[in-house]
Amino acid sequence: GTITLPIIHRHRSFLDKRAVEVQVENRSDVSYYAQLNIGTPPQTVYAQIDTGSFELWVNPDCSNVQTGDQRFCRAIGVYDPKSSSTSFVTGSAAQLRYGIGSANVSYVQDSISLPGSATMKQVQFGVALSSVDEFSGILGIGAGDGFNTLYPNFIDELASQGVTKTKAFSLALGSKAEEEGVIIFGGVDTGKFTGKLANLPIVPADDSPDGVARYWVGMNSISLSPPNGKSTTFAQTKMTVFLDSGSTLTLLPQSLVNEIADGLGSTGTDDSGFAIVDCDLANQPGTIDFAFDGVTIKVPYSEMIRSVNSLPPHCYLGMMGSTQFALLGDTFLRSAYGKS
């Protein structure tokens, strides 16, 4: 049968055999995490789900993160290869860089399982020797062996060791109010979306903006649909974007972010460059609409507007300008259901 961990109180339809559904927990509207059980006996750690990278690593250096993140960092668990009878230190190492932060890792092979799933053997992953600005390890679920890595990554191993039938996975982050979601390796949960899934071809690495095999897709347009009034489609919004659960924000060309912010009545930017908006917008039924071939994702204002705990309340648009590429992060993905 199916291995599931139900987290949302709604009817769950049947999942394909050998699909593994894993609880994904949201940390303060910032990132999403899954539990991993590594080694013999199992050592439990949590890693950030990241569709924008390709490798698994654990054990961040909690002394090299902001003070406010240190407590969380220390609570996610630590893996010790010496405490596992099935660990093998390969002797190879690498530096992994991200949009924010980096990690120097030593590669280890050991047994890994997800909650309720069969145990995979001799899975290769990184154990951090040092890290900067990373308050958790990362579970990169992008394309691995033959694309971005020289060894089978976590997704590759799930399929090759028979835990799932396929390398495909689906991701439902859940809304900010739900504060959790699910990732299903090897299956789809039809209870997590309405309507039909649209098939969007992945743009090959050679044709992508950065030349890397990621979940690049073609977007046709972005429009603003206010609660009262006519929708406005912004010019020059047909572009290639990639879907990145490891990014809290959505990154778009600065001129487009400015137009969207203006459409929401932004009063300017804060010291960090975020567009300031009225917090009351999060209570209004407007949407920012992202159109693709065969489907339009309507992101509610409440998901795209982020708040800061302050007096008086301070809210800003969950988008930032980028000169490198367009990226749809968690502020978009919480309103979408994605299957690789």
From TrEMBL:
The active site is at D50, D244. Belongs to the peptidase A1 family. Disulfide bonds join C279-C315. GO terms for biological process: proteolysis. CDD domains: SAP_like. This is Peptidase A1 domain-containing protein. GO terms for molecular function: aspartic-type endopeptidase activity. Keywords: Aspartyl protease, Disulfide bond, Hydrolase, Protease, Signal. Residues 32-340 form the Peptidase A1 domain. InterPro entries: Aspartic_peptidase_A1 (IPR001461), PEPTIDASE_A1 (IPR033121), Peptidase_aspartic_dom_sf (IPR021109), SAP-like (IPR033876). Pfam families: Asp.
